[in-house]
Specification:
CATH superfamily of the largest domain: Aldolase class I
Distance between the termini: 16 Å
Order of helices and strands: HHEHEHEHEHEHEEHEHEHHEEHEEEH
Shape: globular
Helix content: 25-40%
Number of helices: 13
Strand content: 15-25%
Radius of gyration: 19 Å
CATH class of the largest domain: Alpha Beta
C-alpha cells in the first residue's frame, strides 16, 4: 500500500512542502541527471509516478535536446527539470526554455547573469548545485530558487569534496527558507527521511534510478550494481578522457585496477591507454579510460567503462519499474516518520 499525497505532505518540513508544491510532487524525491542511463522513458515514468524527473542535456545539440523535451512533454503532464554541466557550453538552453520546461538545474559552475535572466524570464525555476556554504551564498546571490547540496558520497562526476551531512550543515546555515535538496549515497526512503530530518527539502537519487527497468543503463551495468557490496565504489580521476581533471565515483573495475597497479600515472602514460574496450551503439570505438558509462546497445567489455555509483549501492537488490521504486521509497519514507 502506498501513502497518499495528503498524508505525505503532513510529514514534510516547510522547505519540502514548498518544493513539492512548486512541482506538484507526491514525494520529495528527485531523479538525478545521469548522462546515458537517464533518458526519455525514465523521465516520463518518474514524473508520472509522482517524483521530479530529469533530462541531462549538456552534450546534446539544440535539435536533439528539444526533441527529447517534446517527447517527455507528450508522455506526461507532470514536472521535470533539465540539467546542464557548466564545464561545457549549454548549447540548447535557450531553445528548451522556449518549450516551457518547468525547471533548469546547473552543476559544475554557476550560470552567467544572462543565463539566469533567460531562465527566470521563461518562468522556470532554477536550481544550482553547491558543495559548501560559500558556494551556497554565491548561488543565492545569483538568484537561485533552490540549491542542490552534493556530498562526496555521490556517484558519477562528483563536484563535492566533503561528506554530505557536513556540507548540508554549512549550506543550511546560509540558505534560510530556500529549499535545499541533497545528493550523495541516498538509496532508500529511510535515507530520504533522515535527510529531511536534518533540514533538507528533498533527496536527489541517481544510482537507485539507474537500477530500474526504464533506465538506459546496459544490462551488465545494472547487474554490477546488484552485485556490488559496501566497499565496491572508488573515488578517482582515472576515467577522464573527455572530461579531464573531473573526479568521479564509479564501481571498481579492471581499468581502475590496472591504473592503480601502475602507480596512477598521468594521462599519456597509463597502461593500455589506447586499447579499444567497447563500441558505441553506432559502432564507434571506445578507448579505455574514456568518461562514458555503459548504455543499451554498447558491445564489448562495457564493464571496463565508468559504471557510476554512489556509496549506497549495497542497499540495491532489485530492478523495479520507476513507479514500483517510487511507491517503495514513499512507503519507506512514511514508515520512517
Amino acid at each position: 500500500m502506498t501513502t497518499s499525497r495528503s498524508d505525505q505532505s503532513t510529514a514534510l518540513n516547510p522547505q519540502a512542502q514548498t518544493f513539492c508544491s512548486w512541482f506538484n510532487l507526491d514525494v520529495p524525491i528527485i531523479q538525478a541527471s545521469i548522462a546515458g542511463p537517464a533518458g526519455v522513458d525514465l523521465a516520463v515514468a518518474v514524473a508520472n509516478a509522482g517524483a521530479l524527473a530529469s533530462l541531462p542535456l549538456t552534450w546534446d545539440s539544440a535539435e536533439s535536446a528539444c526533441d527529447m523535451v517534446k517527447q517527455v512533454q507528450a508522455g506526461t503532464n507532470e514536472a521535470f527539470y533539465v540539467n546542464y554541466v557548466l564545464n561545457f557550453k549549454p548549447r540548447s538552453l535557450e531553445a528548451v526554455l522556449e518549450l516551457g520546461v518547468p525547471a533548469v538545474q546547473f552543476s559544475w559552475g554557476v550560470p552567467t547573469p544572462e543565463q539566469v535572466a533567460q531562465v527566470h524570464s521563461s518562468g522556470a525555476k532554477m536550481g544550482i548545485q553547491v558543495t559548501s556554504g560559500a558556494g551556497a551564498k554565491a548561488a543565492i546571490d545569483l538568484g537561485a530558487d533552490y540549491l542542490v547540496c552534493q556530498g562526496v558520497e555521490a556517484g558519477g562526476h562528483v563536484q563535492a569534496s566533503q561528506p554530505l551531512e557536513k556540507t548540508l550543515a554549512q549550506v543550511l546555515s546560509v540558505s534560510g527558507s530556500m529549499p535545499v535538496l541533497v545528493a550523495g549515497g541516498i538509496t532508500t526512503g529511510h535515507d530520504v527521511r533522515h535527510m529531511l530530518n536534518l533540514g533538507a527539502a528533498g533527496a536527489v537519487m541517481g544510482t537507485r534510478f539507474v537500477a530500474t527497468q526504464e533506465s538506459l543503463a546496459h544490462a551488465d551495468y545494472k547487474q554490477a550494481l546488484l552485485n556490488a557490496g559496501q566497499d565496491s565504489t572508488v573515488f578517482t580521476v582515472c576515467l577522464n578522457k573527455g572530461w579531464e581533471h573531473a573526479t568521479h565515483r564509479i564501481l571498481r573495475n579492471d581499468s581502475v585496477e590496472m591504473w592503480e597497479a601502475a602507480g596512477c600515472p598521468q594521462p599519456g602514460q597509463r597502461p593500455n591507454e589506447h586499447e579499444i574496450v567497447a563500441y558505441e551503439p553506432d559502432g564507434s570505438p571506445i578507448e579505455r579510460y574514456q568518461e562514458l558509462t555503459p548504455v543499451v546497445g554498447m558491445t564489448g567489455n562495457v564493464s571496463a567503462l565508468g559504471m557510476y555509483s554512489g556509496v549506497g549501492v549495497s542497499k540495491i537488490n532489485d530492478l523495479p519499474t520507476a513507479k514500483g521504486l517510487i511507491d517503495q521509497l514513499s512507503q519507506e519514507f512514511s514508515e520512517a516518520g
